[in-house]
From TrEMBL:
<dbReference type="InterPro" id="IPR050571">
    <property type="entry name" value="Class-IV_PLP-Dep_Aminotrnsfr"/>
</dbReference>
<comment type="similarity">
    <text>Belongs to the class-IV pyridoxal-phosphate-dependent aminotransferase family.</text>
</comment>
<dbReference type="GO" id="GO:0008696">
    <property type="term" value="F:4-amino-4-deoxychorismate lyase activity"/>
</dbReference>
<dbReference type="GO" id="GO:0046394">
    <property type="term" value="P:carboxylic acid biosynthetic process"/>
</dbReference>
<keyword id="KW-0456">Lyase</keyword>
<dbReference type="InterPro" id="IPR043132">
    <property type="entry name" value="BCAT-like_C"/>
</dbReference>
<dbReference type="InterPro" id="IPR036038">
    <property type="entry name" value="Aminotransferase-like"/>
</dbReference>
<dbReference type="InterPro" id="IPR001544">
    <property type="entry name" value="Aminotrans_IV"/>
</dbReference>
<dbReference type="Pfam" id="PF01063">
    <property type="entry name" value="Aminotran_4"/>
</dbReference>
<dbReference type="GO" id="GO:0005829">
    <property type="term" value="C:cytosol"/>
</dbReference>
<dbReference type="InterPro" id="IPR043131">
    <property type="entry name" value="BCAT-like_N"/>
</dbReference>
<protein>
    <submittedName>
        <fullName>4-amino-4-deoxychorismate lyase</fullName>
        <ecNumber>4.1.3.38</ecNumber>
    </submittedName>
</protein>
Amino acid sequence: MSNPSAARVFFLSPLPADAEPDDAAIAASIAESDARDPRLSVLDLGASRGDGIFETLGVIDGRAHGIEDHLGRLVRSARMLDLPAPHLGQWRAAMERAVASLPSTGQGSLKIVLTRGIEGSGTPTAWIVARASTSDFAERRTGIRVVTLDRGWPLDVADRAPWLLAGAKTLSYAVNMAAIREAKRREADDALFVSSDGFALEGPTSSLLVRFGDTIVTPSTDGGILPGTTQAAIYRWLESEGRLAEYDTVPAARLAEADAAWFVSSVRLAAPITAIDDRQLAIDRDLTDGMNAMLLSR
Ligand code: PLP
């Protein structure tokens, strides 16, 4: 857990994606303040409708991880929500300043947010919150218990109903948070969403990896799930290690045959799964330690 009152916030006056500002103009478009300062209007559509997008990056020893992967996904989410394309140079500069506000050792996070802005203004609101973490991330070693929860959408939801924004990283995370509360009511730590036609998808804040024998499988991202940046980094590493890593549909019934499984995400990194519903799973210690060592040191 982190102390939110210690966070710094960096507001951006969003530049058009094709603008060519010099460094001074970019610097002048970013304003730093304390996260407790009242800055967000009650008329902002991000606050009143959850109409916006976000990314969360892990920061380790003064370096933000996966900047380009997260910016790529921000651009993709903006396109899905018909938001103006972000100016990548401005976001990179703002992230650099946000990282510099954090301690040079230890772990933390950047949350970057782009909303549709104040109703009627047509101008998006954009900011980054930089926060140091005080968690010891014990779940990376001890693991988590998950329960499967029906997401209520079929696997082809993204094609069938793109307006549901399945697979975009929108600010509308109330459903995801409700799923985690339901998992806790069922005495688990986290939820694994399953499609209405019975396929394992993702967690409310993480991607699923499953090992069947020698092969690691993650659910295909065309099933209306978020393409995970941590999963992608782990796949690049697995491939460099000569291991088999595949994208596939994963019928929930097939989880009974899993030899190991993980939830992976930018801040928690790789958390081994020790139970899916009533089925216990052993922790694959070597692979878990290998993934986390790579994610911490990249
Ligand atoms: N799936 C969902 C729904 C998420 O919200 C997240 C991250 O918050 C992930 C997967 C994992 O993505 P990443 O590894 O880029 O953090």
